[in-house]
Amino acid sequence: MAISRRWTSLAATPLVLLLAVTGCSPSGSSSPEPAPGAPAATSAGHGAPRAEGSTTGTSRVPRRFRHLLPGMPPVIDRDVYARTGPADLSQRVRRQPALVYVPDSMPGGSSVTVISQRTRRVVRTLPVGLLSQHVVPSYDLRHLYTNSSVSNELVEIDPRTGRVAAHLPVPRPYNLYFTPDGRQAVVMVEEHDVIRFSDPETFHRRDDLRVPACRGPNHADFSANGRFMVISCEFSGALVKVSTLGHRVLGVLHLGPTSMPQDVRLSPDGGTFYVADMGTDEVRLVRGSRFRQVARIATPSDPHGLYPSRDGRRLYVSDRGAGRVSVVSFRSRRIVDTWTIPGGGSPDMGGVSANGKVLWLSGRYDSEVYAFDTSTGRLLARIPVPGSPHGLSVWPQPGRYSLGHTGNMR
């Protein structure tokens, strides 16, 4: 888990191409079916109608969009977030209550606090396992899973009712992801330095990957074609590039002795991974193809979470040690705005509301949750919650499918 100094001392935005690219899957067959619950082909992700179709099969398409992972939904208009705009709530989640799920990551914490997005008040407290880290949407958008590390379980929440539905045994789950084809779950067993590939429904183990250079596998994101993932290794100051199908290490990028990489998020154009480095107070930009750092953005203290805006133009960076949020332009790769919590705070992890108007973040060391107006940066609410709130999930969110974490939607 992320350890702050406070406690230890106690690519440019993609141009929307007007050419609607159609093509075929790598095998030459028709494009794979969209994930369950996908919106209709006429849904508008970022404002214009989107044409379905794989982006493979033409030399004019960048390599990063070719040879899609078999079975994954197609990338639209060369924009990995094209179907995560306000108009893209799937039929499966459209009638689900708009809630915020806040896990308590204190060693003795055993609850998820549920907040109404409308009233910004606590509506109930759910009993879950000890040391709950993140609340994660399933690939098919049917379930939410609380990663309860000390209890060695995933606690399933039914998003239709906002209540606990089941308990699934999983050793020391810290974070949870799903491959873009929906056929594998990836559990970050941070405590034991294990990247576990599992059945996405039962979570029975299929394969364990241990990388000597990766201590504390933590957060991740997948390439535009789904063929590999980039994983942050918090306690060894490194990133690892792992193949989705073969579970092989494709590369290791050492970031330095003071590095403590956290959240990872792919740029809309699919070319660059943004990595929040809490140890060096910067967001690192890493080219996925060559797996090397190409730029950096200096930030205030302890950058931790990364969340794209609903229009795909900006990236919200939670600066946990500074009590601020840095707003980064994908186009200029610069901070264009800074939101400050009056009186200070510790913004950590969270997500953006379905309509894009509110950014919700947990206050890791202040036992509260923050709600920011994304148009002005004004703090709308700070809501008291128990213990040490961590990887809160805002639900429902737009998208065809979930890659996991607190809502990495595509």
UniProtKB/TrEMBL annotation:
Protein name, entry field: YNCE-like beta-propeller domain-containing protein
Signal sequence bounds: 1-30
InterPro entries: Host-pathogen_enzymatic-act, N2O_reductase_N, WD40/YVTN_repeat-like_dom_sf, YNCE-like_beta-prop
Every YNCE-like beta-propeller domain range: 100-392
Keywords attached to this entry: Signal
Keyword Signal: yes
PROSITE patterns associated with the record: PROKAR_LIPOPROTEIN (PS51257)
Region Disordered, residue ranges: 24-68
PANTHER family the UniProt entry points to: DIHYDRO-HEME D1 DEHYDROGENASE (PTHR47197:SF3), PROTEIN NIRF (PTHR47197)
Record-linked Gene3D superfamilies: YVTN repeat-like/Quinoprotein amine dehydrogenase
Organism from which the protein derives: Nocardioides koreensis
Lineage: Bacteria, Bacillati, Actinomycetota, Actinomycetes, Propionibacteriales
One Pfam family named in its UniProt record: YNCE
Compositionally biased tracts (Low complexity): 24-48
